[in-house]
Amino acid sequence: MVDVVIGTFFGDEGKGKIIDFLSNDAKISIRCSGGNNAGHTINVDGKKFAFHLIPSGILNKGTKAVIGNGVVVNPKVLIEELENLKSNNIDISNFYISDKAQVIMPYHEALDGLQEDLRKNKIGTTKRGIGPAYCDKIERSGIRVEDLYSENFETLVRENVKNKNVIFKNYGYETFDAEELIKEYNKYAEYLKPYVTDTVSMLHEAIENKEKILCEGAQATLLDIDLGSYPYVTSSNPTIGGVCTGTGIGAKYIGEVYGVLKAYSSRVGEGPYITEQKNEVGDTIRELGHEYGTTTKRPRRCGWLDLVALKYSSMVNGLTGLAINHVDTIGKLDKIKLCVAYNHNGDVNMKYSTNAKYISECEPVYEEFEGNFGDLSNIKRREDLPENAKKYLNRIEELVGVPIKFIGTGANREDMIVVE
Ligand code: GDP
Ligand code: IMO
Ligand code: MG
């Protein structure tokens, strides 16, 4: 009853497009973790929608779009996104936000910048305040959405501002005025009030009524705070466990777990990336795939698809199906390389490690495939794909051992093969 969409690499695999498709017949589409560090692009009838916080499922009439308790919410950004949807005639009456989601405050954004400035080895965060907001949540000084409406709200803001200002003063950064923040956030609270609800009860009512629920992953497995390439990760659990804790749904309700990937790979920010192509190939992929960040506009690092990492993602999430996007993009190259193993000092295997030192000692082992797939835009069945594309996809499926369920053949909503 509850299907899940998860990123298998470093984010930006095209989750938004798959979510948009799958939420078509879902009664609820829910974001589980992360915040406005995410950027999900969906192209509908020539119009481009970029979602950072609001579940991409909102584009489907009749689907409730829910921000779950595991999300960190910047209310200013959320309101801008809601207003933008309204101005595009998208109905937002089906939008809900968990009373338990954490609130991102301006001092979180400032701290994110300060911490990056201080770090010798930069992470390359999105500077959206994600890490500092999750820090406060874990440290138990965070402000929840429900706190915006409680008598305790002003005290919480004053306490937090007092403590954070000590740090800002220490480093010569601008400090914050608690009273200003209280005024600003009271306005946001007023705007958001109709949308705030107990989303856990809402989900379980839907489960009882046998309604279809879709959990929208943001970020991705290799950015997971526990299972990713620490410390070059985000501050949440974008893997399957984060779906349960970020929504309040037990594991027994979970059905399909779709892992989204591109036919190549990309990464924004710092950290190890074994199949990265810091050369003409990487530049070509970036241009062909328009690989520039939805959130920060940074050029994405690009490279070949890494099946060792994909197998790891499949393992830790228990993937039941793969959604592979940008098959059209990779098919524009003459030759395609696929990383099928790592060579660690002569030991060739498919063992992935999040240990940066181990990865730096590994050499990717590639198989080469013929590209030039030609125009895929009108193909709607896997068996009608050109032979070169079939060979490439079959090898991925064979080595990872998870069936391909969706094949992306272009950026538009309808550019997708649904594998029967
Ligand atoms: P997300 O963060 O995982 O939702 O992915 P992003 O939206 O940040 O990045 C994916 C980009 O690829 C977007 O610009 C999509 O429009 C685009 N895209 C998704 N699937 C395909 C595909 O199959 N082919 C092409 N050419 N573009 C795609
Ligand atoms: P979507 O949902 C790609 C990366 C940042 C940085 C690291 C930590 O669009 O796939 P953070 O601001 O989260 O503390 O930054 O994580 N990052 C993403 N990269 N796509 C994303 O989301 C990302 N969200 C965070 O670039 O390297
Ligand atoms: Mg993205």
Task: Describe the model.
With 420 residues, the protein is of the alpha/beta class. Helices cover 32% and strands 21% of the residues. The strands form five sheets. The chain has a ten-stranded mixed sheet, sandwiched between helices. The chain is globular.
How many DSSP helices? Answer: 13
The hetero compounds bound to this protein are: guanosine-5'-diphosphate, 6-O-phosphoryl inosine monophosphate, magnesium ion
Tertiary shape: globular
Number of strands: 20
Quick structural summary:
The chain is α/β, with parallel strands linked by helices and 420 residues long. It is built from 13 helices and 20 strands. The chain has helices at 15-22, 75-87, 106-118, 130-139, 153-170, 178-192, 199-208, 240-245, 280-288, 307-317, 327-330, 356-360, 387-400, and strands at 2-7, 28-31, 40-44, 47-51, 64-67, 72-73, 95-98, 102-103, 196-197, 213-216, 254-262, 265-267, 301-303, 305-306, 321-325, 335-344, 347-349, 362-370, 404-408, 416-418.
Tags for this entry?
420 residues, alpha/beta, ten-stranded mixed beta sheet, four-stranded mixed beta sheet, 13 helices, globular, binds guanosine-5'-diphosphate, binds 6-O-phosphoryl inosine monophosphate, binds magnesium ion
Please write out the topology.
Layout: E1 2-7, H1 15-22, E2 28-31, E3 40-44, E4 47-51, E5 64-67, E6 72-73, H2 75-87, E7 95-98, E8 102-103, H3 106-118, H4 130-139, H5 153-170, H6 178-192, E9 196-197, H7 199-208, E10 213-216, H8 240-245, E11 254-262, E12 265-267, H9 280-288, E13 301-303, E14 305-306, H10 307-317, E15 321-325, H11 327-330, E16 335-344, E17 347-349, H12 356-360, E18 362-370, H13 387-400, E19 404-408, E20 416-418
Parallel strand pairs: 1-10, 1-11, 2-5, 2-10, 5-7, 6-8, 7-9, 11-15, 14-16, 15-19
Antiparallel strand pairs: 3-4, 12-13, 16-17, 16-18, 19-20
Bound molecules: guanosine-5'-diphosphate, 6-O-phosphoryl inosine monophosphate and magnesium ion.
